[in-house]
Amino acid sequence: MSVLVNKDSNIIVQGFTGSEGSFHAEQMIEYGTNVVGGVTPGKGGQKHLDRPVFNTVAEAVKEVNADTTIIFVPPAFAADAIMEAADAGIKVIITITEGIPTGDMITAAEYIKDKDCRLIGPNCPGVITPGEAKVGIMPGFVFKKGTVGVVSKSGTLTYEAADQVVKQGLGITTAIGIGGDPIIGTSTKEAVELLINDDETECVVMIGEIGGQLEAEAAQWYKESGSKKPVVGFIAGETAPAGRTMGHAGAIVGGSEDTAQAKKKILAECGIHVVDSPAEIGLKVAQVMKK
């Protein structure tokens, strides 16, 4: 089993005909992802990348049974795109867009709360199930199929972790980039839970960063779950000065518990195998899986 996306997902691209949407849709199609069409208001009825273009997500759901969407809509309109997808019955909404105003995201998150859908992102690299579906902007060649799940706030470290796991002769079930904004759809805990509950996933890599409580919540859940599946954790931002935003809007150290050191301590106390450098992730995964 994989989580969130697989070869049977019917995927559409919102912002399909824009430069970013076009570029990444083309890469996704080349990878073998089942992209069934796209949405660009006002361009319905046209063909793009040999796929149909629709004016609305509802049309795409009706015409091509879309169940998953990836959003490349500009920041000012992205929250509307999320709500439109949820309204149309899309089950997995992956939002790549960076810089969505926090107020817009609060509205969107509240709006979709009672809908039967899962939002990944925004400001994320997407989700990949190697050999089946790449719904995002990650370099597909880095990922090989295997039994290690990856959850990460950082795009670049998602690829780094996957690369190291593969170099140890292992591979990935699904890698989920949850995004680094203050308001995101799927938390670290929820993503870790999906992978822990996945039959094929034997080990989980959890990459977090300074700021917020997401990693601590995930660690606490893991401890209470009693799961025997090993989790390897890394926290980025050890040298960051307190109170400064570091790249991600969510990476602001507020209190003493938000620092990398404090988070690493919490993770270790909850039974997670913590590494001090991203360069150690692959080796640690290989070690804990041999036990």
From TrEMBL:
Major enzyme class: ligase
Catalysis: reaction(s): succinate + ATP + CoA = succinyl-CoA + ADP + phosphate; GTP + succinate + CoA = succinyl-CoA + GDP + phosphate
Keyword vocabulary terms for this entry: Ligase, Nucleotide-binding, Tricarboxylic acid cycle
Domain CoA-binding residues, every copy: 4-100
Involved pathway(s): Carbohydrate metabolism; tricarboxylic acid cycle; succinate from succinyl-CoA (ligase route): step 1/1
Keyword Nucleotide-binding listed: yes
Residues reported to bind substrate: Y159
One GO MF term attached to the UniProt entry: succinate-CoA ligase (ADP-forming) activity
UniProt KW S-adenosyl-L-methionine keyword: no
Top-level division of the source organism's lineage: Bacteria
Amino acids binding CoA: T17, G18, S19, E20, K43, I96, T97, E98
Catalytic residues, chain numbering: H248 (tele-phosphohistidine intermediate)
Oligomer status and interactors: Heterotetramer of two alpha and two beta subunits.
The protein's role, per its UniProt record: Succinyl-CoA synthetase functions in the citric acid cycle (TCA), coupling the hydrolysis of succinyl-CoA to the synthesis of either ATP or GTP and thus represents the only step of substrate-level phosphorylation in the TCA. The alpha subunit of the enzyme binds the substrates coenzyme A and phosphate, while succinate binding and nucleotide specificity is provided by the beta subunit.
Similarity section: Belongs to the succinate/malate CoA ligase alpha subunit family.
Protein name: Succinate--CoA ligase [ADP-forming] subunit alpha
Top-level taxonomy: Bacteria, Pseudomonadati, Bacteroidota, Flavobacteriia, Flavobacteriales
Name of the coding gene: sucD
